[in-house]
Amino acid sequence: MERVEREWITGWEFSKENEREYHAVELPHDWAVDAPFRPEIEGGASQGYRDRWGTGWYRKRFQVDQKPGVQYALYFDGVYENSTIWVNGREAGGWKYGYSSFRIDITSFLEAGENEIRIRVDNSARPSDRWYSGAGIYRKVWWQERPYGGLQDEKIDIQTVIEEGRALIRVGYDEEIPLRVKMADQESPISPCGYVLVEVENPHLWSAEDPYLYDLVIERWSDREKIDSLHQKIGLRQVEWRPREGLWINGKRTLLRGVCVHQDVACCGIAVKKELWRDRLRKLKELGCNALRLAHHPFSREFLDLCDEMGFYVYEESFDKWTSGAYGRYFGTEWKRDLDAMVLRDRNRPSIIMWGVGNEVENQGQASMLNHLKNLVYAVKDLDSARPVTYAMNPHFKRVSGIDASRVKDIQKFVDEEDDLEIYDPAEKIERIRKIGQIVDVISCNYQEPWYEAIHEAMPDKLILGTEVYPYFLGDPNQLQNFTMRNPSLVPSEYPYVVGSMIWTGYDYLGEAMQYPSKGWSGSLLRTDGVPRGAYYQIQSYWTEEPMVHFAVLDYSMGTECVKEHWDSPPYLTHWDFPQYLRAVIPYRVVTNCEEVELYLNDKRYVLPRPTECPNHMISGFLPYMPGTVRLVGYREGRAVCEQKITTPAAPYRLQFEDEALRVFLRKGEERLFHVCAADSQGIPCIRAEGRVTFQGEGALRVLAVDNGSLLNEEPYHQASVSLYQGGASVLVRREGGGQGVLRAECEGLQEAKLIFVFS
Question: Could you count the other beta carbons within 10 Å of the beta carbon of residue 67?
C-alpha cells in the first residue's frame, strides 16, 4: 500500500471547560489571542496581559474504513500544553510540553463506522512561559496511514561526507532491515543491514545562498517485496567548525548573520500558517539575514520546511529554563523525551546546523547546572554526532545561594538582577564560562561581546557565537548595558574565532512586555505587522551586497513604544514631514553599503563624508526642515548604482496598499497579511495621518484579523477595523472558495483602496 498523510484541520469543535456549547474551529487554533486584557493579573507581562489560563476541549467525529495490515496514527505538530487524547472514550496518549511534536498510534482504538476523538488541553498551571505561549491545538494535525512494519521517520539517520567533487551519503535506520534508496537518478541495491550508501558525483551543494534540495526515496523490502516507501527532501552540504578559524560551509568561511525569532505573529497569536511565515522569512532574506535562532523551543515542521527551502542556518533550541520557570514542572521527568522528539524529528534537515539545550538558566556555572548540562549534551550527541551542541548563557553569574529557584515567581528577574550573590570579578566570570565551555562545542554568549577576547584567551580552541546581541548598542567590559556607539552586529567580522551573531529580535512579539499598556516586546527590527524600523536598514547595509541607501530622520514626536531601554534604538523614521517646524534643524541618518553617497534637499547638494569614515558606517548630520524632496544617490567605483527619494506629503487623500499593481494569487485556505497606508493624491505616504481603517473581503476572500504594528494598542485583533499607526494598518485575509476576490480598505475622509485577488 501507499502510505497516506493528509492534513486534519477541518471538522473540529472547541469549548472552554466552563462553557456548555461547542463551536466549530479550524486548525491551527489559538484560543487565547483574543482573551480579555487584565493588567492586574499575576504574570500578565509575560503573556501580554491576556487572561489565557484555563482548560479547553476539542472534539472531532470521523469515519474510517479500516484496512487489514494498516497502522493508523495522528501526528500533532504542537499542542499547548499538557494534552490528553481520547479515541472513542479510551485514553490513547498525550504530551505535556507544548512545543514538542508527537505521534499517537490509534489503530487499536478505532471502530467500524463513526469514531470520535476528544482532546483536553490544560493551560491552568503557573507560571506560564515568559513570552506569549498561546493555548490550544495551535499547529496542524495530520492523519497518517502506513503498513504494519512500515518506515518511521524518526528512525532514519542521514549522514553526508563531501570530498573531492563527490558526496557520499549514508542512509541508516535504527533497525537492521532491508533498505533501498533512490536519489539523483540512482537506485541502490537492496541492503539487508539497515543502511545504504549512495554516491553522488559533482553534487549540487546546499547553502543559505543556494538552498538546493534533492528528492530522496527510502524503501523497506522483505522477501523481494516492497513493504513501504518514504519521501524526504535533503540538502548536501559540508559544515566545518574550525577552531580559531570560524565556521566554514562548503569550503567557504561563513558568518552567521542572524536574528532570534519567536513563533507568534501578533494578530494570529501562535496559530500561524505556512505562507504567512514565508512572507516573514522573505523580509529577513531581504535584510541579508542567513541564520535564525528559534527562541527558545522547537518550532513547527512547516516552519523548518521553509528554512530548508529558502536557505537559513538554524540554531534549534529545546528549552528555556530547566528546573525553574514554566518548564520546571516537567524537567525532572520529561526532558529526555522532549529532547529526543526535537533531535529525531529534525536531524536530517540541512538547515539545522547546531543544537541548543537551554537558555539563561538560574544557576549557570554552578555544579548542579553543569551536571544537567552534561546530561543534556550527551543525550543529543547520542542521537546526532554530526552537529555541535551548545547552551546560551547570559552575562550574569551568581554564587551558590541555597535558594529554591523553582519557587521564585519571576525567574528571569532573579537571573538578571544584580544582587549580593552577583559575581563582579571578570576573571571569576570567565572561569564560570570556561567550565561551561568544557562541556559544550561552541561558546554561546548572550550580550557578552566585550568579553570575547578574554573568553578566547581562556579557551582558544573554542569558537564563539553571539546567541543574543543588542540591535544597536554595544556594551563595555565594565558596564555591559552601556550605550556605546558601536554596533554588535559588526563584531563577528573582527575576530576569526567568532562565527556570527543573532540579534534580539527579528520581529516584535507578544509577551515579555515592559509595562502596561504595552502587550509585548517592541523595538525589534520589524514590527508585528512586518513594517521595518530604522534599525532594519542599518543592519541591511552591513549584511547585503545589493546596492542600497536609506535616509531617515530622528523623530521623537511620534511617541514611545515602551521598549526596554538597552534593546532600544533611536527612533529613525523614513519620512520628511515636520509640519510643526520650518527651518528647524532636523537630525538625520544615512546608511548604505555603497562607497559614496550624495544628498540633495530640493536639488541643493549637501557634502557628506564617506561611510567608512563614520562610526558604524552610519552618516549622521542635520538638515534645515523645508518641505520638498530629499534625494540620495549611492555610488560604487564612481558610478551611481542606487537612489532613494523622500518627499513631503500633502494632505491625506486616499488609502493605498503597498503595491496596488500586485497580482495576488492565493490557494484555498491560504492566509496572507497585507499593509495599507494613508497617502496624498500623488501616492506619497502620510506618516502622521490618523483615522480608523475598515477592511472588507468580497467573493471568496474573508477578513480574519487586523493589526497596526503598535503593541500599545488596546483593540482586539479579530475584527475588521483598526486605528492607523504611523499612517498605516494591516489585515489578515484567507481565501475560502473559488472565483475572484476583492479586498477593500476604507477610512472616513479618504478614498478607498482595493486589491483584486486572482485564484488559480
Answer: 10
